[in-house]
Amino acid sequence: MESLTLTDIEQKYYSDLFVYCDTDNTKKVASNGRVLDLFRAAQLPSEVVLQITELCGATRLGHFGRSQFYIALKLIAIAQSGLPLRVESLNSVKDLPLPRFVVGKNEAEARHAALYQDTDSQGLYPASATAVIPRPPGRGHQNKKGPPTSTAHPVHEVIQPLAPSIEPQPEPTSPVVSPHQSPPTSPHSWRKHKRQHSGGNADRQPVVAATGAVWTQFRDPQAAPVSGDGMWSSHSPPPPSQESWVSFTADTPPSSAIPAMHPSSVQESTTIRTVASAATTNEIQRQSSGYDDPWKITDEQRQYYINQFKTIQPDLTGFIPGSAAKEFFTKSKLPILELSHIWELSDFDKDGALTLDEFCAAFHLVVARKNGYDLPEKLPESLMPKLIDLDDSAEVPEPTADVGYSGSPVEVTPNKSPSMPSLNQAWPEMNQSNEQWETFSERSSSSQTLTQFDSNIAPADPDTAIVHPVPIRMTPSKIHMQEMELKRTGSDHNHPTSPLMAKPPEMPEETKLPASMKFVAANTVGDGYSSSDSFTSDQEPITRQRSQSGTSPEALKVVAAPPPPPPRPHPSHSRSSSLDMNRTFAATSAPGQPQSSTIAYPPAVPPRPLPTQTSLPHSGHRSEAEGAPGGGAVLTATSPQQIPQQPNFADFSQFQAFAASEQPSSLPEVDIHSEPGQTEKPSEGAGPLRTVKSDGQADERASATVNSAKGSSGPIAPPPPKPVRRRLKSEDELRPEDEQHGPQKSNVIAAVLATQPSIPRSVGKDKKAIQASIRRNKETNTVLARLNSELQQQLKDLLEERISLEVQLEQLRPFSHL
Amino acid sequence: MAVCIAVIAKENYPLYIRSVPTQNELKFHYTVHTSLDVVEEKISAVGKSLGDQRELYLGLLYPTEDYKVYGYVTNSKVKFVIVVDSSNTSLRDNEIRSMFRKLHNSFTDVMCNPFHNPGDTIQSKAFDGIVSGMMVQTG
């Protein structure tokens, strides 16, 4: 045998391996399985291995003596380095890396091999106490990062003549396997591991020693394998001065320490090995599983975490508030930014508090971070709160309770106290629903979607439960609804707010019931034009609803009925006059003239305002344009259309009946220019209006009484004015009726108010009737809206003409001067 | 896809602002700053229906020739401003709303973090991720 000079490291390493292979403890390693496995683990081609064995003389001897073994190991190292196998190179090659044995018969071996190198590098770094944290369990993977102190790669192949300031500890318990062992070279890892076991060294030492014995072979010789146990026993627990944070590290499960353990006593190891094997198998398994998952929390770690959790929150099923957690984790002296990121990762349900699982995850992340591991971008799966811990759940029954349902951490939220974060979480959802609602409302500007909007508002709007499903915000659709409502009451649909403003007492009712009314109207209108008879009767309960605030039954009933699609323009009506009028007139078999007149009428124009209220606007308006009479005619013409929806007009008509009787005489002589004069007189205007209204009201009521009233008041009066006004109306389409609608609205409201008490109350109206009335209202509303748009367009056109005329005038003026 | 997203605190200092880096970021900073005036105006305008009735989504604050600015304010007067390229005409109002909703949710999560001091700039990776997802994917 050639003389073999080994460095100390090599010596230790080889001795460890030899001891490992020396199962029979005969100081002569036969070609037993261990050796073969070892050589196989060297990942060398079989012929190389054969060559090595040949070179070292084992084939000659038939077995591996210590020296042969050492030579073989060195040859393996040479081969792994890529150098040709030469006996001469045994001693010539300097700085030969240690032979690496990977993927041994079990991963643990390989891991330990890696740990060997890890410990090599560890020895290089006299890490501070706080920095020396045992690698997380399962970190023994060869290629994984070593302990935090070892920034060197696990494949650190440089033989490090360790000169760390490792405490030279004698090994009382372990017979020095190799006399070369130098306690001073014991790596930091030992100290580190010692620290780990500060919490329970005594208990763990035997186990650790045993397990270490198994793996010692792969231990870095410089790691003072023999001194491992000694170090264990002799190492004093880490200075208690270390903050609890570090003590935590000390308590890091011995699993990670086990690999680092050296077989302190080979002899002991043999005896304890069997005992240790059982213990180590678990560790190995755990490490094996941790081999793939560096983030797994071991039992000891978890126990430690749980203990820490208890210090903050005695109830393991409870939660740690964010402030307490902040204080706790701030002690780790990590930068706030990293702590913030850790919190983001660990607070799974985003509620600002930590359950036990979340706390363990956060703690684990902090530990990892302190060990130098980078924080993951996402929470590792092993750290996610899960239903059942892989570790024994003896101490973690609570995770099942609070975290409970894996994959549904949101469910935990309800268990937690409704903290602000929960509210904040709920808020976006509510806001979302509100926004959805808003979206719907904004899109419902088209009458087509009005139905959907209404059907959606019921479930989405929390106010639905309240008596009146009144949207709070004035959305276009709402305005539309209110317009319809107002139209029913004879108010101008173009100015839904004006009646509200005009009649403050009316507002609460109207605001309460616009939706309901709208629903009713929609239903009414949508149902078609069949229930004309019931329509009038429908108006009564509806108006009664208006009169009585808080009519929850009707409101709910109304809400229950989804408004039908808005009515289509009647094909027979060019200007889409109110179908209601047709119906009403047909039903009441009113004079045929009114029917035809109404048919030809443009969309219902809100009735004329009350004389008191509309006098000024009317006069002002009428004086402006020549088409005033037409507007008045229109107004009066349309008022009948509105009247059907205002059953309460009956009384009003009665008031004005006799007054109207005076007017009819004047009405027939109305001509375009005289009309302004007449209309300018509010009373006169109101008179014909009211008569017309009464006419319409009579139609609505379908009651002979009203008809009689109408007849008495001015049976003749209404019809004559209508044709006249119709003509006027057709002539003048410019008359914006907005202003008139406004005062008319108020007039209608007053009429409604006046007539409300007189209207008998029929609470038990059929829903169908109400729906019919709603439908009619909607129809009228749409008709009026169309009319409005057309009038607006005409107004624009006229304005343009006026402008052009003025321009021409300006152009001509200079000529005039010439 | 937004070109610039900004979060402004109640006191009108930026908590978070990020723009597409390819362009002059200062221009976006200025735009966001000027949009604050519009936001303030919109907030104060709805005085009749105070508090909860006020719409959180402010909508289009003002358009310029190059881009449009949308605003959103929370109940705690924290403002979100999104600047969108005008050429991106396909962005509907709903999409902007959903963007604001996501922003608000992630902002809430940031606020829940006990390690985040209100008033500090937002340094949350999750928030950055959300914002990146909404920014123009040019770089």
UniProtKB/TrEMBL annotation, chain A:
GO molecular function terms listed in the Swiss-Prot or TrEMBL record: calcium ion binding
SMART domains listed in its UniProt record: EH
Keywords associated with the record: Calcium, Coiled coil, Metal-binding, Phosphoprotein, Repeat
Polar residues composition-biased segments: 529-552, 579-599, 636-648
GO CC, one annotated term: cytosol
Biased composition regions of type Basic and acidic residues, renumbered to the chain: 692-702, 729-742
Gene3D superfamilies per record: EF-hand (1.10.238.10)
Domain of life: Eukaryota
Region of interest called Disordered, as start-end residue ranges on this chain: 129-206, 222-248, 397-421, 487-510, 528-774
Feature: compositional bias, Low complexity: 649-666
Keyword S-adenosyl-L-methionine in record: no
GO biological process, one term: endosomal transport
Coiled coil stretches, renumbered: 777-808
Ranges for domain EH: 10-97, 301-385
Pfam families the UniProt entry points to: EH
Entry keyword Metal-binding: yes
Domain EF-hand, chain residue ranges per copy: 334-369
Name the record gives this protein: RalBP1-associated Eps domain-containing protein 1 isoform X1
Automatic annotation (TrEMBL), chain B:
Localization: Cytoplasm, Perinuclear region
Transport found in the keyword field: yes
UniProt keyword annotation of Transport present: yes
GO biological process, one term: endoplasmic reticulum to Golgi vesicle-mediated transport
Principal localisation: cytoplasm
Pfam families: Sedlin_N
Annotated GO CC locations: perinuclear region of cytoplasm
Ranges that cross the membrane: none
InterPro entries with a match to the protein in the record: Longin-like_dom_sf (IPR011012), Sedlin (IPR006722), TRAPPC2L (IPR044760)
Keywords: ER-Golgi transport, Transport
CDD domains in the record: TRAPPC2L
UniProt record similarity statement: Belongs to the TRAPP small subunits family. Sedlin subfamily.
Official protein name in the record: Trafficking protein particle complex subunit 2-like protein
Source organism (scientific name): Perca flavescens
